[in-house]
Amino acid sequence: MKFEKVDWDQFTNTQFRGKVKARYDKLRELFGDPKVGTLCDYGTQAEWCLFLGDDEEPVHIYDWYSASSPPCNYEWHIGGCSYKALDLVKEALEDNHV
Asked: What's the whole-model pTM score?
């Protein structure tokens, strides 16, 4: 699946759309290195901001206030402008056997 990594400031009007279960190393393998933050940076320690799919849907994958460090996280929040963002992440994970 086609994707482009972007900076957070390119995103507008995204909001929580659901959660997915995936290993951190598999997300890194699929989408590259995340932006790494601290809990003070919007409550995330790792996040990916992407335009995903042929329609370049804005997708935000992040670990919202997780007590675990990113390599130990298995549940990730998905943000987007529509629920298509959640569907695209699930499809990318399934297509890559994650």
From this structure: 0.83
